[in-house]
Automatic annotation (TrEMBL):
Provenance organism: Chryseobacterium phosphatilyticum
InterPro entries: Killing_trait_RebB (IPR021070)
Protein name, UniProt field: Antirepresssor protein RebB
Length: 88
């Protein structure tokens, strides 16, 4: 078998592309880390907003229930008996 030689322009091009890929690797890795952190932060804020909405719904329901109970005291006798319970 005869030894074959490769044109120097080809070896230079392959070497340069390998150097380019190796040189860009740290930047690509760090950009992936930043993108992952931004995505996680976005999900965290979405969860916080959802929790606040749920808390607001719960607060409104409790307020509505409390007002409903206040309005259900239908007679002055109820008010007098409650006053006697609260002020023995």
């Amino acid at each position: 078998m005869a030894a074959t030689t490769v044109n120097e322009q080809i070896t230079d091009a392959v070497t340069q592309s390998n150097v380019k890929v190796v040189g860009e690797s740290p930047a690509m890795a760090l950009s992936n880390v930043y993108q992952s952190a931004a995505h996680s932060t976005g999900i965290m804020f979405e969860n916080a907003v959802n929790a606040q909405n749920q808390q607001n719904i719960l607060t409104q329901a409790a307020t509505t229930q409390g007002v409903s109970q206040i309005y259900s005291l239908d007679t002055i006798a109820d008010a007098v008996s409650i006053a006697k319970i609260l002020n023995p």
